[in-house]
Amino acid sequence: MVFGFNSNVPVGKVIYHVQTEDRGPNNPVIDTTIYVGGRVLAKRTTSYRDFLASPDFSDSELQALLERQHQQLIEEVRTGRLPE
Predict the structure, then answer these.
(1) Residues forming a β-bridge with 76
(2) Are strands 29-36 and 14-22 parallel, antiparallel or unpaired?
(3) CA dihedral in degrees (59, 3, 73, 29; nearest 10)?
(4) In whole angstroms, what is the distance from residue 49 CA to residue 38 CA?
């Protein structure tokens, strides 16, 4: 199952679009991309290959990982700490 989140984050007069996606079990990474006006400003990719092989893996835990990364990047945008 593919999960993802999209949020528009206003900061002053700028609206940042934060998009987080699961690339699936064949490419087990969580990608979060930050856009302004369609232009990519920043991106964070986190592998979950080890977690996928773990007995603790579940769709709900994966969903929680996606949501945590998404919320973390939103907070970084709001506080002016865009990732490199």
Answers:
(1) none
(2) antiparallel
(3) 70
(4) 30
Tokens of 25: 């079990």
- What letter represents residue 37's amino acid? G
d(CA 81, CA 50): 28
17 forms beta bridges with: 8, 35
Q: Say how many C-beta atoms besides its own lie within 10 A of residue 83's C-beta.
A: 13
The CA distance from 56 to 16, in Å, is: 34
pLDDT tens digit sequence for 30-82: 999 999 999 999 999 999 999 988 999 999 999 999 999 999 999 999 998 87
Phi-psi region of 42 (alpha: psi -120 to 50; beta: other; left: phi over 0): beta
Tokens of 64: 């929680």
For residue 45, what are its two tokens?
A: 């990719």
